[in-house]
Write a structure and sequence with these properties.
By secondary structure, the chain is α+β, with helices and mostly antiparallel strands. It has one helix and nine strands. It has a five-stranded mixed beta sheet with strand order 4-1-9-6-7, with no helix packed on it.
């Protein structure tokens, strides 16, 4: 005849639960938190000519940047009568960097009239253009240079 075997019940210690909770929090912060991040990226500013006059109806675009995904259009807007623009794009997952610019090649209003542009960020002229960090607001002013 077999006698029932009484199994010892394992007691969980406070340190075991604390370790589990800490691991869960770390995983959530590194993985899950990225799922909750607002990916709305905003760029705003003004487009002018060399004389400082506003240029209206110019396309300003936001494009993907980074390895293997450079130059994909993510959104665009037109400047108003004062040359001002504001562009907000909900950047899809899979894109880690964006840029903002005035695409001279397919801008009907300015096609063939301007050769390039200079850019200022927050009032300071810059040479490296125009990264817009995902989830943040960036200010870029463009001065179009005549041919």
């Amino acid at each position: 005849m077999l006698l029932p075997v009484r199994m010892k019940r394992k007691a969980y210690t406070w340190s075991g639960w604390a370790s589990f909770l800490l691991l869960f929090i770390l995983l959530f912060n590194t993985i899950g938190c990225n799922l909750l991040v607002d990916r709305t990226t905003t760029a705003h500013g003004r487009v002018t000519d060399e004389a400082g006059n506003p240029v209206d109806s110019v396309i300003v675009g936001m494009f993907s940047a980074g390895f293997g995904k450079t130059g994909i259009p993510l959104g665009e807007t037109l400047t108003d009568k004062e040359g001002k623009y504001s562009l907000a794009v909900d950047v899809p997952r899979g894109y880690s960097t964006t840029t903002v610019g005035v695409p001279l090649g397919y801008n009907p209003k300015i096609l063939g009239k301007y050769k390039s542009w200079r850019v200022s960020q927050n009032g300071q002229r810059i040479n490296n253009c125009c990264y817009a960090p995902i989830g943040e607001k960036s200010n870029y002013d463009f001065m179009l240079l005549l041919k």
